[in-house]
Amino acid sequence: MRLLLAALTSFSIFFSTPGQAQEANAVTPFTIDIGQDVLDDLTARLERTRLPDAIAGAGWDYGTDPDALTDLISYWRTDFDWRAAETRLNAFDHFTAEVDGTTLHFVHARSPREDAIPLVILHGWPSSFVQMLDIIPLLTEPESGPAFHVVIPSLPGYGFSEIPTDTGMSPVAMAPLMHGLMTMALGYDRYGVRSSDLGAGVAGAMALAYPDAIIGSHTGGTNPYLQQPLPEDLTEEEQAFVQSAQMWTFTEMAYAFLHSSRPQTIAYALNDSPAGLASWFLEKFERWVDHDGDLYGVISRDDILTNLTIYWATGTINSSMRLYYEAARAEGGWGVPEVPVGYLMPVNDFFPTPRSWIERQGPVTHWTETDQGGHFMEWEQPQIVAEDLRAFFSDL
Question: Within 10 A of 78 (CB to CB), how many other CB atoms are there?
């Protein structure tokens, strides 16, 4: 357990310099169009769902609540309209570009303002580019402050980006692909970065490798991985953080250890059963979203299922989980990026994180705490994220 934790910290701080992207092919318009045969097969599998037994009245104590999952499966099968969701998604401008032999899908929303700042926004797991869509108009056409040209890629192995077929597609390996997308494919000499979850690992590697190109890197959220050995001069606030992280590791981290050690094993089940995939995701959204008992009051059921259907239709559950495996084994040392770093820290994401703990990893030029929102801030509180992005980049 300790060795695995130490390995996992390799992507939780910053990385050694990745290689430079070498080439990018032309940007090509892309339209989402899931085949009807895929949707028919999904419906048939949902109709044949075989649920396990459950302790009556246990709720979420043993994992995914059976009543909540039954409700979601029923809605997915009979009421969710993928074609309507597809139309909403296609209202955005989607493209693909090949960077160093890897085809990347991305949304590109340009601001009408000539002084807009290019900004790449990186998602994590178990979300996708869908998490970031609500924030686009708040950034491209703000009422005040800086505006942004927004680029939202699907990470390799996620959504409509290419599934890696070789080992080693870690956050470090993704960094030059994201940088190449922004510079070679889209022609932005300098740009900002916003990231969350595993996307923050990619952003960290980018900031370390391309300081001259990155205007600033904005992130946030609690990172439960503890550096080893622990510092000997922990403050009282940091001691409470470490205790919370250790407890979270023993009670909540089983999924990450599985992803990091044997993702292929669970992938057979999740790639074959949409009910199983829904359970694997629903429990994380229930636990990680800041809500008062009504998850769908924060992130709509249709948005949850849009994200879930993309994973199902593209068959990317295995490749998305493999990012944990690759991250735990990525070679690299420690480094502090020479770019401004800003944090929007939701105190309800897992457990509170003190600024002093983050600053042990490097200087923080901008820090905002909020008691609204959890792990998926762009979904949960897009206005707060947009306002903090404008405040951060206004000072750069």
Answer: 10
Residues 162, 104 contacting (CB under 8 angstroms): yes
Question: 5 pLDDT band (50/70/90 cuts)?
Answer: very low
Mapping DSSP onto H, E and C, the string for 182-246 reads HHHHCCCCCEEEEECCHHHHHHHHHHHHCCCCEEEEEECCCCCCCCCCCCCCCCHHHHHHHHHHH
pLDDT digits (tens, 9 = 90+) for 168-185: 999 999 999 999 999 999
Burial of residue 179, with CB atoms counted within 10 A of its CB: 0-12 exposed, 13-18 middle, 19 or more buried: buried
* Of residues 258, 320, 257, 310, the one with CA closest to residue 126: 320
- Flag whether the pTM goes above 0.90: yes
Q: Are 197 and 255 in contact (CB under 8 A)?
A: no
The amino acid occupying position 177 is: L
Flag whether pLDDT at 75 surpasses 70: yes
Which of 199, 326, 309, 325 lies closest to 265, judged by CA?
A: 325
Q: What is the DSSP string of 18-40?
A: PPPP--BPPPEEE-----HHHHH
- CA 363, chain centre distance (Å): 23
**Cα–Cα dist 196/126, whole Å:** 11
The closest of 313, 312, 316, 310 to 35, measured between CA atoms, is 313
- pLDDT at residue 323 tops 80: yes
CA 338 to each of CA 102, 210, 219, 261, 361: distance values in angstroms, whole numbers, following the listed order: 28, 9, 15, 33, 12
Phi/psi at 28 (5° precision): -125, 130
Q: How far apart are CA 194 and CA 60, in angstroms?
A: 32
Tell how far CA 179 is from the center of its chain. 17
- How confident is the model over 94-106, as pLDDT tens digits? 999 999 999 999 9
Q: How far apart are CA 15 and CA 172, in angstroms?
A: 7
